[in-house]
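Weekly modeling sync, notes
Attendees: S.R. (lead), two postdocs, one rotation student

Agenda item 3: backlog of single-chain predictions. S.R. asked that every request posted to the team notebook include the full sequence so nobody has to chase files. The rotation student volunteered to paste the first one in as an example of the format we agreed on. Action items at the bottom.

Example entry:
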Amino acid sequence: MSVRQTDSRQRVVEAAAGMLARHGLNATSIREMARRAEAPLGSTYHHFPAGKTQVIVEAVDFAGAYTAQQLRRHLQAGLFEGVAGFIAMWRETLLRSNLHIGCPVLAVAVEEPLDEVAEEAQAAAARAFEEWQRILCEAFAREGLTGEQAVGLATLIVASVEGAIAMARAYRRIEPFDRTAARLEPIIRQALVDCTKPASAAE
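Predicted structure, as returned to the notebook:
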């Protein structure tokens, strides 16, 4: 496969991720993906013989991996700084798009497919969420938080951020996102304080 073919294939995947983030799952067609990627429709079907299902799955995997990479990068500065950076990344995405672009992973997770895209796409979304939670759990473990506490807190962060993205887009205002973000840091701090208390003090 030539470099040009590889670039064309990747452009289609990235175009699909962008369409998911802005328009959702059912409004994302393989013809429009190819047009936005400036790729011939015939070669797009050649690269993705399983059609729309394959492109959507790869787009969600791409978006999930990119977000995981950014989360790891932010966490290198520390737990609170990392979570704040993760939140700021999504806030910037919302504001830069005038609240028209959200999370492609969330779009696939919440929308019931009208066509052949089904379990494979939702499984890809689940993989992305699980990876983000795993990265956060590892960060909490380094701070002394383990087990169900770490999993619960990681789930809370991912669910809060994703839900806040959806609310901000629905309201066309950033305030719901900012209010959610403002509540996360004290919750994390309190959880870390609680995990360091002696068992007798926690009772």
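Discussion: group reviewed the output briefly. Confidence is low (pLDDT under 50) at residues 1-5.
Action items: rotation student to repeat for the remaining queue; S.R. to check formatting next week.
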